[in-house]
Structures are given as structure tokens and as C-alpha cells.
Amino acid sequence: MTGNELGNGKKEFHPAMNEETNHPLNIVIVGTAGQGVITLKRFIEYVAMEEGYKCIYGSEMHGLAQREGAISSHCRLQREVSSNTRENMHSPTICHGDADIVIGLEPVEVLRNAGLLCSEKTVFAINSRDIPPIMVTAGKQSYPSLDEIQEILERYSGGEHDRIYFLNATKIALEQLDDAQKMNMIMLGFTLAVTGLSFSMDACNKVATRELKDSKMNEKAIELGLQSGKNLKHA
Amino acid sequence: MPDSRFTPSEPPGTEHLFLGNEALVRGCLECGVGFIAQYPGTPTSDIGETYRRVLQEQPRLRDYITHLWSANEAVATSSCAGAAWAGFNALNPMKHVGMNVASDALSVIALNGPNPGGLVCVVGADPGSLGSHQEQNERFYAWMLHMPMIEPASPQECKDWIKVAFLLSRTRDIPVYFRMTTRIAHSRSKVTLGKFTLPERKMGRFERNPAKFCSLPPYAIDNHIRLYHRIERISREIPSLELNKIVPGDATTGIITSGVPFGYTIEALHQLERDDIPVLKLGMTYPLHEKEIVEFLHDLDSVIIVEELEPFLEVDVARIAQAYGLQVEMHGSDIFPKHGEFNIGLVTTCLARVLGEEPSQRIARARELHDGYKAIIPSRFPTFCPGCPERAMLMEIKKATGNLTDPPTIIAGDIGCYVMGIMPPLKVSDFIICMSGGLSAAIGMSKKVSEKIIALIGDSTLMHTGLPVLADAVANDANVLLVVFDNRWVAMTGHQPPAGKGKLSIKALCNAMGVTWLKVVDPFNVDETIGAIGKALTMDGLKVIICQRECALMASRVMDRERRELQSQDKQYGRRSYQIYNCVMCEKCSELLSCPAIRRTVDEFDNPVMKIDEDRCTGCGVCAQVCPHGRIKTTIIHPHLDAQLKIRRIEQEYDRK
User: Fold this and answer.
1) How close A155 comes to chain B (CA, Å)?
2) pLDDT at residue B393 above 60?
3) Whole-number pLDDT of residue B653
4) Burial grade of B242 (CB within 10 A; 0-12, 13-18, 19 or more)
5) Most B-contacting residue of A40, A59, A89 (CB-CB within 10 A), to test interface
6) Is the ipTM of this complex over 0.85?
7) pTM reported for the whole predicted model
8) Domain ranges of chain B
9) Residue A181's CB: how many other CB atoms inside 10 A?
């Protein structure tokens, strides 16, 4: 797999980017309650709408899953509507092994709620800041190291390294924006840089202005994530 | 700026993204619904939330549309019947277990009929128990109550079909069962708008008609017969409603399904390269149109029913096949699980087995890889948020009772965030039944055991069904300590106001009901609260402790808003946080509180220590009072400031009166 240069308008090759097949682009977003999984998912859907995707379908998790619980959201984007109904999306959730992109707002949640949906084609963008579950804090269970998580995820791609990207987005959010909640938008920028998800900054900023309260801070967050991703890719 | 998706000026034909629940609200705004009443419950809470927001943003609509948060589901359903009998279309959302509560009222309302208005009950089922304490197949209520049942499979259908439901209810004088599931309620896709339609009038009129509205003998029997006629007439009209459709195929095996499982089925068949299998998608799942089923089955050798939970369609389809003497092999609950939620992977695997197809390699590999490492994933169950007053109270109960052994104490749990008390490491609820089931069971148990009993209840659950139980506990002199979590929100369902919020005092209410020993405590004052619990347990009879602190999630949201406001003005601010200095690793904070803001880590010399995450700490200060070595101290994070951020105290004026 060879990647095109980023930033010159061309996007990296990605199986899901092959629009001739019109197969849905399947994005899984996982994290813990309160991290902004749903906000990020809806943001992606709005941008996809701006970018002209004809079919947008996805599923969120509300309710009992709040309160520090594990959260996952599915987001499915299809370029065109087929006249054959059997070729269109009808399920709001993604099939086992069919995820193209996983955005992990918390590392171990990627294993829990995205793992079953991954295969050799999946690209991972993961916030490396862990939120230890209470059983870990209580010393009754242990939390796998980032190296272990990386090693496990490499099993999907048969050891290829260009599929798994980590960024401590919470640290950036706290240090540069004094707001841990902006981590999700930093992760969006990071995802754009490392997975080849082809959204323009114009569309992102337009949606931020329209849909988010403090749009300037969010635009800044996306930019921070994008830059971090580009730096990582070119390192 | 109001959300344009819900405004009259947004032109029909425009496309917007909607959640299933939001699309349903838009549909109601397109068919003149004038009244909505509900008790919040996942997955239908955001129907009411959306209405609230729409009415807030567009005050003009309030002349025509009334939205109420009701005390419980039976109250909401009867409220809706009242509005329907005044001539309005009334919407009554509830969660699946809400139907258990509402069914008492509905069993009579169905006999009477909602005319001159219309009544639609939106029931949010929860296969897989994604947002509930249990799963149940409440579809059988449709059979029992003779309510026509409609099941949408996409947000577009949520919007379009709620209008069909109201049309049916209004023209046929029958309450309609609109069955959602958590998955469809919380799925989002593009929806094409129709024409915005307000109710014709602001106020309606009730006309006396005892034969219709008083279902007592002999009217009750007459109305029962009339109900049979109504449902039979609807069963004949089904094709004209255009809710059912066939995705054609020429195979001799067919599938009958409805709702979200239709989506899983179509994608599963496509994966298995079996697009030749015809699929009958039922939009109306009760009653069935017998001729339609017979015609679909006629050319088939076998049929597969794809439905979640207990077989419902399967039973009815089998009845029809038998009645018409059709020789067709039937599969359904024999190959699919009768519990939990479905997904494409599961449906593909089950269908592959019965169709004799090769199961998908990709699905098998995903399962195999996941199975290979899932043992190392630490469990993460929902728990109390950082700064939660309920966690503090449960810790104080454990401390006051020597870990429930001195005196031996039984904890009667209930429904609300405190349900999470059953999880480790707190593990403080010995049984849980249903809303207000805890205190109810405690009354009986207190007569037959010698242990102390502490019953837990939230402010909203107390208003839902708890008041009669409280009266019962007083009347029957139950030897129970009742702890009321007065956090001012229906927190678990997303912060709706509990009945009576801002108007009534739980303290005055308990006093009026004859409670003789009552104390209001702030759970963030640890010693004082433990003292109150200890004192209460030395006394006989019913005692009440009101644990008064606002939900931490809501309180910290308010604080976040203040912070963003200060940020936007470029002001400097400080906030209270706590840190652990020279931790000796006694682990008491973790053992007693297990606050998610405290993590286990290592210090600079690689020694294990506990550490507080400053971004997650809300500054409640309970851990500092619990640390036996006094190592947790308060810090101000930004010392040079224009303002101090602090968790707010809830209003208490009406309790002082």
C-alpha cells in the first residue's frame, strides 16, 4: 500500500475510498461516557452531508451507558443511492469485520467495542490517554499497556504499522485549550490526517460554526489534531 | 435561532438528519398533535426533550401544543386520554417497562376509544437491555389490549408512520401501539420533511357520553364487542395503509421480518449472495393481514421469521399457515436467540446455517481475533460519576453499618442511578424489583427478619410510585430506614425535572404523611451523615433521611458553562481540586469510594500510588474526609484569578419553610 502526499489535495489510498464499489464507509467511534463520542459522530455526519454523501445512517448509545460506561457509535456513509435496494444500507450498525475507520477516544475501548468490527482493512486513530475502569483502580484487574494494545491491533493487518496511530489528544486539549472536552475534535483532526478520511477543513469549519457552541475553540482543536497527525505521518 | 428541522417555515421536501425519536416528533408536528405526556425512560426520553426544546425555541407553538412530564406512565397515559377526549391528537411515549405501568389505564382506554381525538402510545423496547434494567417482549400487550401495532425500521418511517398511526387512531377510535426499539430510536439518518400542521384549535371540548367513557357493565361488555369490531375492520384495511412491503426474489425460501431486524436481514442476505430470497417487511405487526401472509407463503417451501426476543410474529404466522392448510417449513426462534439484540453479523451467521451457505470468512475472523484477546480487556460497567452524592451516601451507609455487618443490614435497592450500587466494588443493594419495589419489599421483609433494613429511593422514583408505598410504610409501621436521594433531576434518563420540581418539598411531604423521624443531610459532610444513619438505625419504625445534593453531572455542567463564559471573556479563574500528597497506598479511597477521578499509577520512583486526575475531579472533597492518613488536600489550580468556580448548592428555600 502506498500513500499519496497529504496536503496537496490528494488523499491516501484506502479500500473504503474506492467509490466505484459504492460500499458504505464504516466509521466506529468508541470511548467512555462523557468523552464526546456522540458529538463527534454527529459532527462527522453533518460534514458528510456537506461533502455530498447521499446516504448517512448510524447508531448512537444513550441512557444507561452514561455514568462512566463504555460507549460506541456507528457512522455509515454511502456516496450514492443504488436503484437496487439490496445494495443500499439498511442497518444502522456495522457488521463484524466491516469497519473502515476506528476512532478510539479511549485506548482499551477500541478492543472492547470496536474489535469485533475490525479486519485487515481497518485504520485506527486512538487517543492514548486512558481512563482506568474502577476495577483497575481497585487493583482487581489490570489495564493493558499501549504496546500490548498496538500489538493486538496489528494482528488485524498482519503486522502492518501504517494502520494504527496514537495521539495523546487529552493532553493537548488540557495544555493548549484548558478544556479536556475538546479532545474529541482534536481526534477528528487527527483522523483526517492519518486515515485519509476526505473531509475539507472548509466543510468542518462550516459545521462547527453552525452546530457547536464555541466554534472557534473547536476549529482550533480540529487544526491542532490535523497538525499533530501530519507531523506524525512525516516523522 | 430555533432548530430549523422543527419550524413551520422549513419547506416540505427538504432533507435533514434526524434521530428516530426526533423524526417521530417532526411527524407529530406534521399531523397536528396537540398534547404530549410522558414519564422519562430510555429509549423514549428524548421525544419529550425534543418537544421541550421546540416549544422553548418557538413559544408561539405553545398556544397549540402542550407538553407535560408526568409523575408516572399510568398518569401520562390517562392524561393523554383526557386530551384526546377533548378532541386532540395525544402522544404518549414510554419505555417498555412503562407499558407495565400504563397497561392498567390502557386496558380501559382501549375499550372506550380515544375519539373524538387520537391516541398513540410510543413504546420503546430494549432488546439487549442497552438502557434498562431488563429486557421484555412487550409486543404481547398489543394482542392483549387489541391495539394495532406499527413498527418503523428507519427514521424516515418513524416520521411518516406516526402520521399513519394518528390517522388510524382518529378514524377508527382506537389507541395505536407505535413500537420503537432502542436501536431505531437512537439511529440517525436523512429524513425528508412533509408539511407542518398545527392542531386546528387551541382549546377543545368534552361531550358527555357515559356509554363510551364509563366502561363499567353493561357498557364495558358493549365496548369490548366494539373493540373486536374495530380491530377486525383494521385488519381488513391493512393493504391500503401501505405499511407492509415485499422485497421480491424468486427463491423458494422466504423471510418475514419487521423493524430494524429488516435492515440486518437485507444486508446479511447481500453478504451471503442470496439476493434471490424474497423478504416480507411488516410495518404493521398486529393485526396481520391473513391474505397477505398466505399469498407470500403460497409459493414457498420454507419461511424464516427474523425477530428479536420471544417469538411473536412466528406464533401468528404459524397460526395463519395452519388455518389455511399451508405446507411450509418454518424457522425462527429455533435458529435465532430469544434474548439480546441482533446485528448483521449474528443474522448472517444464523441465516447461513439454515440456508446451508458458507458463513462469511470476514465475520468468522473478526470473532476469532476478538475471542483471542477479550480476556485481557478490563470490565467497565456504569458507575457513579466523579463527585456523585449517591456514591458518598452509599459509602456512608457502609461505614455506619460496619460494612453492613454491624448492625447486620439489608439494602433494598430501586431504579435510578443508585441501581449501580450493586456493582463492585461498592456492592450495596441486596435486591431490586421495579420502580418503588425496594421500599415495598422492605415493608414485608421488615416484619419477618431481625436485620436492619435501609431502602433507597430517588426523588423522581418517590414521585413515580413511591408515595403510596411511603403511606403504606407509615400505616404498617415498617421498621425501615428510607434514604431519599434528592438530587433534583431524573438523572439516569438524561436530566428531566422530577414531578413537582421547585414546587413541593419532600420533607414537608414526609411530615404530612406521618413520618416522625426525619433528617436532611449533605452527603459531602461525611461524619455528620454517618452520625445521622447510625442514630436512625437505633430507632424503631419508619425513619427518613433526605440526602440533599444536586446530581454531580448537572452541577458540573453548570460549572463548565461558567468556565466557558469566563474563557470567552479572557478572564482568569480558579477552581477547587484535590491532590494526594505522599500516598501510603492504604487503598482506602479506592475501596470505599472507587471514584473514577482517582487512578492507580506510579510515582517518579516507580512506587505504586493513587493520584487524582485534576480534569475529572469536581472538588466534592469526600475523598479527603475518607483518607485515614490525611494525605488528600485541596488545591487551587490557577491561583491568580478573576473568579472562583465551585459546584453549586441546590436551592433549599422551600425545604426551610
Assistant:
1) 8
2) yes
3) 42
4) exposed
5) A59
6) yes
7) 0.93
8) 4-241, 246-376, 389-553, 572-645
9) 20
Task: Sort out which chain B residues have CB atoms less than 8 A from A182's CB and list them.
Answer: none
pLDDT in tens, B44-56: 999 999 999 999 9
- ∠ at Cα B200 (B194, B203), nearest 5°? 135
Grade residue B344 by pLDDT with cuts at 50, 70 and 90. very high
Q: Indicate the CATH number of B246-376 among 3.40.50.720, 3.40.50.1820, 3.90.550.10, 3.40.50.920.
A: 3.40.50.920
CATH fold of A18-234: Pyruvate-ferredoxin Oxidoreductase; domain 3 (3.40.920)
Average pLDDT over residues B284-303: 97
Confidence grade of residue B504 (pLDDT, cut at 50, 70, 90):
confident
C-alpha R_g of chain B? 28
**Number of A–B residue contacts, CB under 8 Å:** 230
Domain at B572-645, CATH class: alpha beta
Cell of residue B632, nine digits: 488528600
Residue B271 touches partner A, C-beta closer than 8 Å: yes
Cβ of residue B77 closer than 8 Å to a chain A Cβ: no
The neighbour count for residue B113, using CB atoms within 10 Å, is 25
Identical topology for domains B4-241 and B389-553: yes
Q: Which CATH architecture is the domain B4-241 placed in?
A: 3-Layer(aba) Sandwich (3.40)
Instruction: With a cut of 50, list the residues of chain A below it in pLDDT.
Output: 1-13, 15-16, 18
CATH number, span B389-553:
3.40.50.970
Distance CA A133, CA B251 (A): 50
